[in-house]
Amino acid sequence: MADVDVRLVNVTKKFGDQTAVDGITLDVSDGEFFTLLGPSGCGKTTTLRMIGGFEQPTSGLIELKGEDVTFLPAHQRDVNTVFQSYALFPHLTIFENVAFGLRRSGIKGGEVTRRVGEALELVQLVGFEQRYPAQLSGGQAQRVALARALVNRPAVLLLDEPLGALDLKLRKQMGIELKRIQREVGITFIYVTHDQEEAMTMSDRIAVMNKGRYEQLAGPETLYERPATRFVAGFVGASNLLEGRIGSEGDQWTVTLPSGSTIRAPKSLGDIGATGAIGVRPEKLSLLEPGQESKGNALEGVVVDTSYLGVITQYVVEGAGGLRLLVSEQNVDRTTRNDTWRPGERVTLTWRPEHGFVVGDAVGA
Amino acid sequence: MGLIRRHPALVPLLLLLPGITWLGSFYLAPNLQMFASSFWSGSLENGFAFSLGNWVNYPNALGTYQEQYLRSIQYGFAATLICFAIAFPLAYFIAFRSGRARSILLFLVVAPFFTSYLLRTIGWRTILGDESIVLGPLKSVGLIDPSARILDTPVSVVAGIAYNFVPFMILPIYVSLEKIDRRLLEAAQDLYASSWGAFRRVTLPLAAPGIFAGSLLTFIPAIGDFVNAELLGNPGTTMIGNVIQRQFLVVRDYPTAAALSFMLMLLILIGVTIYGRLLGTEELTSKAI
User: Fold this and answer.
1) Which candidate in B190, B200, B287 is best for mutational testing of the A interface (most A CBs within 10 A)?
2) Minimal Cα distance from B194: which residue of A?
3) Distance from C-alpha of B206 to C-alpha of B287, rounded to nearest angstrom
4) What 3-state DSSP class applies to B228?
5) By the CB < 8 Å criterion, does B60 face chain A?
6) DSSP-assigned letters across all residues of B150-174
7) For tag attachment on chain A, is the N or C end more exposed, with fewer CB atoms within 10 Å?
8) Which of A234, A295, A230 is nearest to A263 (CA)?
9) What is the model's pLDDT at position B289?
């Protein structure tokens, strides 16, 4: 494991009687692309602002490269931020915007020109030096904000929803770009977003935050394949959660649904606790004609909705007792949508027990 | 309506018509008439005659009243500086620190306008008088000389002008400060600027359009003011506004009064142009949006 760049120990932030961040402890390694993912109000931005020095924790400790910076003001921290709205200085040229941090740290003349040039090259904006921020598109402004932060070669770069203001296509493009830049400069990135897709494509590790804490901290694949809580299962990708009476059969958990059907999942997937559930992602489900041989877990149902989405077709299947399940099937070996299942058709839903996941008791509840 | 539909190009013209009519009748026409009268000779009793040869009205008027011009510039300058020194910290406080009190404070800034300009200026006579609540106690405890006075001195005139025009300095500066995105200041601090550095490199340049507007709104009326010099000054504090007013309404030497007015306008125009160039305000306002 690489060195720890940023360490948060039991960090709490209260605004009046509101707790924005509730005792977070985490380590971010040197050179890591680390993401704080969560809905608005989950405390992710406050956490980032405390690392940046714009807020002071109510209690807890923040370390940067092993040094306590908990109460160090922003301008004395070896950390730079890419702000959500970019916050470019409107009265300065792009060159002067990027040079701002260098000049404040006493770097002069040719060195400034050289490093600003390098930074603009990195974000592919050479030739924009003499323009003003108002003359840039959203994507260009975003790149300038990135260059302005990276040019200082900070130990850690903080990014607060940097792609939030861009349209979808540009967002995806910039996401790939960000990942490339991060690999190129090797600086630790701490990235805040509410967009799970963004988080999944770029991050080495993701902390999924809810109500001031993180519910799971893991790589993208683990988060998707093995979400540990109901919240994570619902926030990262789409999920079907199957709730019922929890039991145990050898090395498998069982959940007996209100309809009487029992489904299974291997205990190796995680601890179901006393109030957990078995879940399954829509693409892990297969649709069969009733009576066909199942893959282990099987539920009967009726197709109530069919949406053809190009790569996949998405179905909503209603089982006994009003249970609704989301199914997505790849459109393989299919030339017309006549081959898809039609609303009203009876089907069997099936999946292999090891393709499900197990969520445990809710965190903090 | 048919006419507009057939000639849509008329619409802007029709929209401008009330404004053009107003300015044409009450600004342009009187100015032209006044400009013409600056080339008059003669008197009210014997009638006036126009002749381009009467351009000598200008150098003559300037020769006689250059002292008052100079004094007006000095007083206007001093009052503007005082206004700025008062207004900037106040506007900064209201924009950045006042919280819920903001609208009350802004109201207090304009509250004096609910009372007549003249009444407020006369009020200062009482406040600054020789045995007033300001000087009286200081004199009785012997802190200042019993013969010391403020009223009817240049100090009271400049103070009066500054007092009367300070809201015109506060409001534009407040607006420009209030518009500043707070994240810009965070960004500056993130980029290693101290609080003072962020103020100097970000807040101040972005407030420049407001400072420019405020100082013009203060300096221009201040330099042409006559009420403060009349009510709070002495014959030695006469400003060019007093001269023009007396020439028009008392002496009725219209040609001299008109020539004096036009030279004042020219003076202000030149000053403002230089000031604008120095501050580069056009660039600032167009790029700070």
Assistant:
1) B190
2) A75
3) 10
4) helix
5) no
6) -TTSHHHHHHHHHHHHHHHHHHHHH
7) N
8) A295
9) 40
Is the Cβ–Cβ distance between A287 and A328 less than 8 Å? Answer: no
Q: What is the pLDDT at residue A173?
A: 87
Q: What is the DSSP string of A202-214?
A: H-SEEEEEETTEE
Query: Amino acid identity, residue B56?
Result: V
Dihedral (CA of B150, B152, B154, B160) sign: positive
The most distant pair of C-alpha atoms in chain B lies apart, rounded to whole Å, by: 83
Furthest-apart CA atoms within chain A: distance in Å? 79
Q: What is the pLDDT of residue B1?
A: 60
**Dihedral of the alpha carbons of B267, B268, B269, B275, in degrees to the nearest 10:** 110
What is the least distance, in Å, from the CA of A31 to any CA of chain B?
20
Strand partners, B63: none
Chain B residue closest to A93 (CA)? B287
What burial class does residue B60 get, using C-beta atoms within 10 Å of its C-beta: 0-12 exposed, 13-18 middle, 19+ buried?
middle
At the fourth CATH level, the homologous superfamily of domain B75-238 is MetI-like (1.10.3720.10)
Nearest CA in chain A to B208: A91
**What is the pLDDT at residue A338?**
57
Residues in A lying within 8 Å of B, measured between beta carbons? 52-54, 73-76, 79-81, 83, 85, 87-91, 100-101, 104-105, 132, 134, 148-149, 152
Count other C-beta atoms under 10 Å from residue A58's C-beta. 14
In sequence order, the β-bridge partners of residue A33 are A189
User: What's the rounded Cα separation, in Å, for the pair B231 and B156?
Assistant: 10
Residues linked to residue A214 through DSSP beta bridges, in sequence order: A209
Parse chain B into domains and list their residue ranges: 75-238
| C-alpha distance from B190 to closest chain A C-alpha (Å) | 5
Radius of gyration over every alpha carbon of chain B, rounded to an integer in angstroms:
24
Which parts of chain B sit beneath pLDDT 70?
A: 1, 280-289
Q: Give the DSSP H/E element, type plus range, for residue A253.
A: strand A252-256
Q: Say which residue the tokens 């507009």 belong to.
A: B4
Report yes or no: B181 at the A interface, CB cutoff 8 Å.
yes
* Minimum CA–CA partner of A152 in chain B: B191
Query: For residue A1, what are the contacts with CB-CB under 8 A and spacing of at least 6?
Result: A29
Residue type, B104: I
Contacting residues of A for B183, CB less than 8 Å apart: 83, 85, 87
Q: Which two tokens stand for residue B6?
A: 């057939």
The residues of chain A scoring below 70 in pLDDT are 1-2, 333-338, 362-365
Are the beta carbons of B255 and B41 closer than 8 angstroms?
Answer: yes
Position B282 scores a pLDDT of 55
In Å, how far from its chain's centre is CA A339?
Answer: 35
Is B192 touching A (CB cutoff 8 A)?
Answer: yes
Q: State the Cα–Cα distance between residues B207 and B31, nearest whole angstrom.
A: 34
